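We read letters as residues; the fold follows as C-alpha coordinates. A sample entry reads:
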Amino acid sequence: MKRAGIIILVFLVITAGLYIGRVTYQQDLMVDNLLRLHVIANSDSPRDQALKNDVRDRLVKEIGDRVAGMESKQEVLDFLRDNMELIETVASDEVAAHNASYGVKAETGRFEFPTKLYGNLALPAGKYDALRVFIGDGNGANWWCVMFPPLCFVDTKNAVAFAKDQERVRDMLTEEEFEILMSSQNMDEVPVKVRFKIIELINMSKIKLAHVFGR
Protein backbone atom coordinates (compact mmCIF):
# COMPACT_ATOMS: atom_id res chain seq x y z
CA MET A 1 0.00 0.00 0.00
CA LYS A 2 2.84 2.33 0.91
CA ARG A 3 4.60 1.52 -2.37
CA ALA A 4 1.41 2.23 -4.31
CA GLY A 5 1.13 5.58 -2.56
CA ILE A 6 4.70 6.45 -3.54
CA ILE A 7 4.04 5.49 -7.17
CA ILE A 8 0.93 7.67 -7.24
CA LEU A 9 2.88 10.58 -5.72
CA VAL A 10 5.66 10.22 -8.29
CA PHE A 11 3.07 10.11 -11.09
CA LEU A 12 1.44 13.27 -9.78
CA VAL A 13 4.81 15.02 -9.51
CA ILE A 14 5.70 14.08 -13.10
CA THR A 15 2.29 15.16 -14.37
CA ALA A 16 2.52 18.45 -12.49
CA GLY A 17 6.03 18.96 -13.82
CA LEU A 18 4.91 18.51 -17.41
CA TYR A 19 1.99 20.88 -16.88
CA ILE A 20 4.18 23.46 -15.18
CA GLY A 21 6.69 23.21 -18.02
CA ARG A 22 3.99 24.02 -20.57
CA VAL A 23 2.58 26.82 -18.42
CA THR A 24 6.06 28.29 -17.88
CA TYR A 25 6.72 28.18 -21.63
CA GLN A 26 3.42 29.91 -22.32
CA GLN A 27 4.12 32.55 -19.68
CA ASP A 28 7.61 33.24 -21.05
CA LEU A 29 6.24 33.48 -24.59
CA MET A 30 3.58 35.96 -23.56
CA VAL A 31 5.94 38.04 -21.39
CA ASP A 32 8.53 38.33 -24.17
CA ASN A 33 6.05 39.51 -26.79
CA LEU A 34 4.10 42.17 -24.91
CA LEU A 35 4.84 45.84 -24.27
CA ARG A 36 2.87 47.56 -21.52
CA LEU A 37 1.97 51.18 -20.77
CA HIS A 38 1.46 52.26 -17.16
CA VAL A 39 0.36 55.72 -16.00
CA ILE A 40 0.79 56.22 -12.26
CA ALA A 41 -1.15 58.94 -10.43
CA ASN A 42 0.30 61.31 -7.86
CA SER A 43 -2.10 59.96 -5.23
CA ASP A 44 -5.44 58.21 -4.86
CA SER A 45 -7.38 61.44 -4.35
CA PRO A 46 -10.31 61.88 -6.78
CA ARG A 47 -8.61 64.92 -8.31
CA ASP A 48 -5.33 63.10 -8.91
CA GLN A 49 -7.05 60.03 -10.29
CA ALA A 50 -9.11 62.16 -12.69
CA LEU A 51 -5.90 63.88 -13.80
CA LYS A 52 -4.26 60.50 -14.37
CA ASN A 53 -7.15 59.47 -16.61
CA ASP A 54 -6.84 62.62 -18.70
CA VAL A 55 -3.07 62.15 -19.03
CA ARG A 56 -3.78 58.56 -20.06
CA ASP A 57 -6.20 59.67 -22.77
CA ARG A 58 -3.73 62.22 -24.10
CA LEU A 59 -0.86 59.74 -24.16
CA VAL A 60 -2.89 57.00 -25.80
CA LYS A 61 -3.97 59.41 -28.54
CA GLU A 62 -0.53 60.93 -29.12
CA ILE A 63 1.39 57.65 -28.96
CA GLY A 64 -1.27 55.76 -30.86
CA ASP A 65 -1.07 58.19 -33.78
CA ARG A 66 2.70 57.79 -33.95
CA VAL A 67 3.07 54.03 -33.57
CA ALA A 68 0.17 53.14 -35.85
CA GLY A 69 1.45 50.71 -38.45
CA MET A 70 4.51 49.59 -36.49
CA GLU A 71 4.72 45.83 -36.77
CA SER A 72 7.06 44.75 -34.00
CA LYS A 73 7.46 45.27 -30.29
CA GLN A 74 11.07 46.32 -30.78
CA GLU A 75 10.06 49.00 -33.29
CA VAL A 76 7.63 50.51 -30.78
CA LEU A 77 10.14 50.22 -27.95
CA ASP A 78 12.84 51.96 -29.99
CA PHE A 79 10.40 54.77 -30.80
CA LEU A 80 9.58 55.23 -27.12
CA ARG A 81 13.23 55.30 -26.08
CA ASP A 82 14.01 57.88 -28.75
CA ASN A 83 11.07 60.09 -27.75
CA MET A 84 11.06 60.14 -23.95
CA GLU A 85 11.23 63.94 -23.94
CA LEU A 86 8.19 64.12 -26.22
CA ILE A 87 6.25 61.71 -23.99
CA GLU A 88 7.06 63.73 -20.88
CA THR A 89 6.11 66.96 -22.66
CA VAL A 90 2.73 65.57 -23.75
CA ALA A 91 1.97 64.41 -20.21
CA SER A 92 3.24 67.65 -18.67
CA ASP A 93 1.09 69.75 -20.99
CA GLU A 94 -2.00 67.85 -19.84
CA VAL A 95 -1.01 68.31 -16.20
CA ALA A 96 -0.54 72.05 -16.77
CA ALA A 97 -3.94 72.24 -18.48
CA HIS A 98 -5.44 71.14 -15.16
CA ASN A 99 -3.56 73.89 -13.28
CA ALA A 100 -1.53 71.26 -11.43
CA SER A 101 2.14 71.71 -10.64
CA TYR A 102 3.22 68.06 -10.63
CA GLY A 103 6.33 66.98 -12.42
CA VAL A 104 6.23 64.08 -14.87
CA LYS A 105 8.79 61.33 -15.35
CA ALA A 106 8.73 58.69 -18.08
CA GLU A 107 10.90 55.59 -18.21
CA THR A 108 11.19 52.36 -20.16
CA GLY A 109 12.52 49.13 -18.75
CA ARG A 110 11.71 45.58 -17.74
CA PHE A 111 9.59 45.56 -14.61
CA GLU A 112 7.95 42.94 -12.42
CA PHE A 113 4.15 42.84 -12.57
CA PRO A 114 1.61 40.58 -10.84
CA THR A 115 -0.98 38.43 -12.60
CA LYS A 116 -3.53 40.72 -14.22
CA LEU A 117 -6.69 40.49 -16.28
CA TYR A 118 -6.93 42.85 -19.26
CA GLY A 119 -10.44 42.66 -20.67
CA ASN A 120 -10.76 39.06 -21.76
CA LEU A 121 -7.00 38.51 -21.75
CA ALA A 122 -5.07 36.89 -18.92
CA LEU A 123 -1.53 38.14 -18.31
CA PRO A 124 0.61 35.98 -16.00
CA ALA A 125 2.92 37.46 -13.39
CA GLY A 126 6.41 38.21 -14.64
CA LYS A 127 8.83 40.83 -15.90
CA TYR A 128 7.47 42.80 -18.83
CA ASP A 129 8.96 45.53 -20.98
CA ALA A 130 6.96 48.65 -20.24
CA LEU A 131 6.68 52.40 -20.53
CA ARG A 132 5.88 53.89 -17.13
CA VAL A 133 4.76 57.50 -16.73
CA PHE A 134 4.79 58.88 -13.19
CA ILE A 135 2.76 61.95 -12.27
CA GLY A 136 4.06 63.86 -9.25
CA ASP A 137 5.02 61.50 -6.42
CA GLY A 138 3.59 58.51 -8.27
CA ASN A 139 1.98 57.11 -5.12
CA GLY A 140 -1.50 56.58 -6.53
CA ALA A 141 -3.21 53.73 -8.33
CA ASN A 142 -2.01 53.18 -11.86
CA TRP A 143 -3.83 52.66 -15.15
CA TRP A 144 -2.28 50.27 -17.62
CA CYS A 145 -2.80 48.66 -20.99
CA VAL A 146 -1.03 46.50 -23.57
CA MET A 147 0.76 48.81 -25.99
CA PHE A 148 2.03 46.05 -28.26
CA PRO A 149 0.19 44.25 -29.69
CA PRO A 150 -1.75 47.54 -29.94
CA LEU A 151 -4.58 46.74 -27.55
CA CYS A 152 -4.38 50.18 -25.91
CA PHE A 153 -5.83 51.56 -29.11
CA VAL A 154 -8.64 49.01 -29.58
CA ASP A 155 -12.28 50.02 -29.25
CA THR A 156 -13.40 47.07 -27.13
CA LYS A 157 -16.98 48.41 -26.95
CA ASN A 158 -17.39 48.13 -30.69
CA ALA A 159 -17.60 44.44 -31.58
CA VAL A 160 -16.92 44.98 -35.29
CA ALA A 161 -13.93 47.24 -34.69
CA PHE A 162 -12.62 44.89 -32.01
CA ALA A 163 -12.86 41.92 -34.37
CA LYS A 164 -10.87 43.80 -37.02
CA ASP A 165 -8.22 44.80 -34.49
CA GLN A 166 -7.98 41.23 -33.25
CA GLU A 167 -7.17 40.17 -36.80
CA ARG A 168 -4.48 42.82 -36.93
CA VAL A 169 -3.02 41.49 -33.69
CA ARG A 170 -3.18 37.95 -35.11
CA ASP A 171 -1.15 39.09 -38.12
CA MET A 172 1.56 40.44 -35.83
CA LEU A 173 1.99 37.24 -33.81
CA THR A 174 2.53 33.59 -34.53
CA GLU A 175 -0.59 31.46 -34.35
CA GLU A 176 0.65 29.91 -31.11
CA GLU A 177 1.38 33.30 -29.55
CA PHE A 178 -2.04 34.60 -30.55
CA GLU A 179 -3.79 31.54 -29.12
CA ILE A 180 -1.94 31.95 -25.84
CA LEU A 181 -2.75 35.65 -25.71
CA MET A 182 -6.42 34.99 -26.36
CA SER A 183 -6.66 31.73 -24.41
CA SER A 184 -9.06 33.17 -21.86
CA GLN A 185 -11.69 33.29 -24.60
CA ASN A 186 -11.47 29.54 -25.12
CA MET A 187 -11.79 28.29 -21.53
CA ASP A 188 -14.68 25.84 -21.28
CA GLU A 189 -15.68 26.17 -17.65
CA VAL A 190 -12.77 27.39 -15.51
CA PRO A 191 -12.79 31.18 -14.92
CA VAL A 192 -9.55 32.95 -15.82
CA LYS A 193 -8.97 34.14 -12.26
CA VAL A 194 -9.26 30.59 -10.96
CA ARG A 195 -7.07 29.26 -13.75
CA PHE A 196 -4.14 31.52 -12.92
CA LYS A 197 -4.60 31.02 -9.20
CA ILE A 198 -4.21 27.29 -9.80
CA ILE A 199 -1.08 27.94 -11.86
CA GLU A 200 0.41 30.02 -9.05
CA LEU A 201 -0.39 27.31 -6.50
CA ILE A 202 1.14 24.61 -8.69
CA ASN A 203 4.29 26.67 -9.10
CA MET A 204 4.48 27.04 -5.32
CA SER A 205 4.00 23.27 -4.96
CA LYS A 206 6.79 22.66 -7.45
CA ILE A 207 9.21 24.55 -5.24
CA LYS A 208 8.18 22.57 -2.20
CA LEU A 209 8.33 19.22 -4.02
CA ALA A 210 11.74 20.07 -5.46
CA HIS A 211 12.99 20.70 -1.93
CA VAL A 212 11.61 17.36 -0.71
CA PHE A 213 13.25 15.43 -3.55
CA GLY A 214 16.53 17.33 -3.12
CA ARG A 215 16.49 19.07 -6.49
Remarks:
- Helices lie at 2-32, 46-67, 73-82, 84-97, 159-172, 175-181, 192-212.
- Residues 35-176 form one domain.
- The mean pLDDT is 70.
